[in-house]
Amino acid sequence: MTDIFRTEITYLKGVGPRRAEVLKKELGVETFDDFLNYYPFRYIDKSKFYKVKDVTNDSAYFQLRGKVTNLVSVGDKRTRYITAIFSDDTGTIDLVWFRGLSWIKKRFTPDNVYTVFGKPSVYKNTFNFVHPEIEDYIEGEDELVGQGLEGIYSSSEKLKNSGLGSKGISKLIRNLLNQTGESIRETMPDYLTKHYKLLDRKQALINIHFPENTRIIDSAIKRLKFEELLFIQLQILQNKQNLREQITGVRFGKVGDYLNDFYRDHLPFTLTNAQKKVVREIRADMGSGKQMNRLLQGDVGSGKTVVALMSILIALDNGYQTCIMAPTEILANQHYHSISQLLKEMNITLDLLTGSTKKAHRRKISEELENGSLQLLIGTHALIEESVSFKNLGFVIIDEQHRFGVAQRARLWQKGRQVPHVLVMTATPIPRTLAMTVYGNLDVSVIDELPPGRKPIKTAHFFDSKRLKVTGFMRDQIKRGRQIYVVYPLINESEKLDLKNLMDGFEHIQRDFPLPEYQVSVLHGRMKTEDKDAEMKRFVDGKTDIMVSTTVIEVGVDIPNASVMVIENAERFGLSQLHQLRGRVGRGADQSYCVLMSGVKLSAEGRKRLEIMVRSNDGFEIAEADLKLRGPGDIEGTQQSGLLDFKIANLAKDGELIASTRQLAEHILEKDPNLEKPENTPLKQQVQLLQSENRQWGRIS
Ligand code: ADP
Ligand code: MG
Known about the structure:
Blueprint (H helix, E strand, L loop, with lengths): L15 H12 L4 H5 L5 E4 L16 E13 L6 E8 L2 E7 L3 H7 L6 E5 L1 E4 L2 E5 L2 E4 L12 E4 L4 H5 L4 H15 L9 H6 L5 H9 L4 H33 L10 H10 L6 H14 L6 E6 L5 H14 L3 E5 L3 H14 L7 E4 L5 H13 L4 E4 L13 E7 L6 H8 L7 E5 L6 H5 L6 E5 L10 E6 L3 H13 L3 E5 L7 H18 L7 E4 L5 H12 L5 E4 L12 E6 L7 H8 L10 E6 L5 H12 L3 H12 L24 H17 L9 H12 L9
Parallel strand pairs: 4-7, 10-15, 10-16, 11-13, 11-14, 12-13, 14-15, 17-22, 18-20, 18-21, 19-20, 21-22
Antiparallel strand pairs: 1-9, 2-3, 2-5, 3-4, 5-8, 6-7
Helix pairs in contact: 7-8, 8-22, 9-11, 10-11, 20-21
Bound molecules: adenosine-5'-diphosphate and magnesium ion.
Magnesium ion (MG) binds next to helix 11.
């Protein structure tokens, strides 16, 4: 039996090839099923017409009927908007548009009657409607009134040009439901719909598009979210389960001299309990005979590096090669230096491979990888180039993996004869809901404790107008022997402008902190590697007091005496980046400070971000706040992955439902790993259907 919901959308009554093209381009709708799952984003009550005199400011929507006259364009080219007067037999009200002006100009004929639907706002003591919905009034439409709630679909300029504004879309979906409604199948077993009091699927789909009343909208949304999230989790977990069965991992059964020596003689501090716990988890996983796929989470400064290193030593003890892949050259360098430092008294071969590695050196690395004499390679994307091949790669660490695509990671896998164990590290914590979805088929280890003796960093926000005060504070800190970072954002609009911004700042600082009393370094991405290294070294050695730089110092840099971080244009940074930057200080015994500088004009969101930074030092809390603030679409690295294309659920808002459906999915699969029990047949069918449609969820990481 062919599935009617897989029918191409072009065959829906009222669509045809041209509209099908637009629907695909603008909404990604290709099949009946896609369209059925294109839901309204809000609902309005059009069951009643009001008169102008009845319009009040109680923030409700009003539907009016009347004429539109006196259309005028106001303002100059940049500030142009259009106003018009709307009137019925009881009075007038202003209409205002700021966008789509050329369309509005042509929209109205003076004597025609229009239906206007909008939310009144108060301006200069009268009401107006900004961007109201307008329709031609059709004689006899009053009879349609009473249909009540109408779903509003988001549309676009191109869709509207094809007659597919919200109304047009709604009409087509009406056709779709008429044609297919009877075929809508239940995907949930009875025991679940009963236990969770879920609306049946057909009712849910009909009512999400054409609700009978407000109450049922909530039930429909709940049901559809539940379904979406449960099936995502079933796919992720089944996939994880399958991988574990299919892939034989290298068994790292041995604990040998490298780890023991390091632990006994070279570890520069006592591990925190959290670090010990995580090392144990990793060791157990790598020794299990299954392939490890693990996410290592820990706040900035929690000591992930040493945990990574100890995991590497386990692999080396078992005779395998290892590598660390970092997203930037600077970070790769940092890893190389800090790990070289930790290993300096041990007899382990390691090397660094980045875009700047010279040809001859490259060749040497290749040789040593192939003959097995190189034990640990640290590098950037350069690691996954064709020419690199290992003799026996057994363990891969990917730092900040979200910047790597799935395909890139897969290429690393092919570097060895066996599938290596994989440890993914993120620079700052990621929200819980992301850990359960985007990273959902990784096991998770969390370092939830900072090394002892850290003083919480004091963070303050200053407007640029208070710069003198900040300068005074900086001088005082330098007098006490401290060093200071001053960081400028990379805005990416134009490299030239960014650089100018930084160099202007550098000049200012040189003026405020003159030679010979003060020494100032500068560091940015355009500098040659040797120069960067030289500047960095001057700062590390304490020869300069201030390091002016772009975000190149964001990652990895570890200088305990640098205890003040000044972030310029702080409003331009994302929260996790701010937190990551702040993590560069607070590494020594002294009280550390983070100063966030900004202009006075702040967006509401910018202000919120700075408030959160001032309030909290906790990366996990900040990650959650970030997700709430920005919504899931903007989380770094997730856009291109297409993994967050939820149809109805929301990563930022549905945390609880994500957690509970994950638990439920775990519970179901624990008892019935292949969904073979009769009561789970609907689940099995739907999972198979989703997988055959090549939905992404099964295949992450
Ligand atoms: P991150 O998790 O941000 O990568 P690092 O691994 O760079 O953190 O560690 C931050 C700093 O803390 C480093 O200077 C490191 O040497 C130090 N450190 C790590 N673990 C401990 C510990 N258990 N006790 C004391 N210092 C530690
Ligand atoms: Mg680190």
